[in-house]
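Bug: token stream looks shifted between consecutive jobs. Job 1:
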Amino acid sequence: MTTAQTGASLAGCAIAILILFANLRKWWTGGRALKDLLPTIQGFITGAFGTVCSGGLVGWLAGCTRQGANAGGSKAVSATTGTETGGEIPAASMGSLTEEGAVIVFLLFCALVLAYKAASKEDKGRMTGALVAGFILCATAGVAGALHGLPDLANSIGLSGRNALRGAL
């Protein structure tokens, strides 16, 4: 599978921001316990890594999610306001993954799937929403620029793991 090289539109970003707002509002008005925020963080970080996947299932999902959010967001904003939207936001990438970094992203994605299976219905919604928001927002130049060190972190953790497995600590 290859990823659809689709950037995010302004309306698509509005959908992502709305999803994050819904997740964070519930946390803010609740007890503000860190454990209640973890599903949102886990989903968003996994979504962020999905934008640097050059293909595969995660890269494909990220591209398809942006396409769907762009189309749905454009219709929603137009139906709500009567103004056509479709302006693209400048796209960027946070960087690229090495072989070792790809293994870390694979493990994070699998951890999200396993956590999703064990989560409550409410946490499943938070994880999925934050994953979608990460897929959309982290393809924009502003968010990608702010998180540009994330792929390097995965790459270095993966390299450390490889060295540990080789016995080269």
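Job 2, same session, no restart:
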Amino acid sequence: MTAMATNLVQLKLEREFDTMDTDNDGYLDWSDYQQLIDRYTSVFQAGKDDPRSGQVQAYFQMYWMELIRHAQPSTERLTKEQFVQANRLAIIDTSRLNMVEAGAHVTFDCMDADGDNEISKNEYETFLRKVMKVSQPDAIEAFHKLDLDGDGAISRQEFIRATREYFYSNDPDAAGSLFFGHV
């Protein structure tokens, strides 16, 4: 096993940190997550009365609190190292919230703007480009890997499987490892 494969989850989390650190100050704080929430609700047109808006808000508040609980920072912000370590601890600690499963469902529900219980290529591209601010061409190619049955859409089961692979798999070719493009 190569060093990259051994540390692939770390590399994925570090890239997530870099994407989330919108002001490039080397820290994540609640304002970074609030900006993410705002992008979700704006991009997928989930108004204040839309249940998806409340679900996204509630999930990311719980997720943030779990990161803070596991990182135990001296302030309400996280360095990249703290973020990676807190995520590694939070994804295995399901005593309060199963972050991986909950996040997959909330993200899927928000992305599924037309409510057909599947993610189209357009919905996935919108998520990557406008919510996660990923512009890598290979990230779009990941859609076809996530669509395991080749029907032209990502089902909830395929999305949840990919989310699990993103957080747990050190296989660089696993569909979930390609969620946001090649690492």
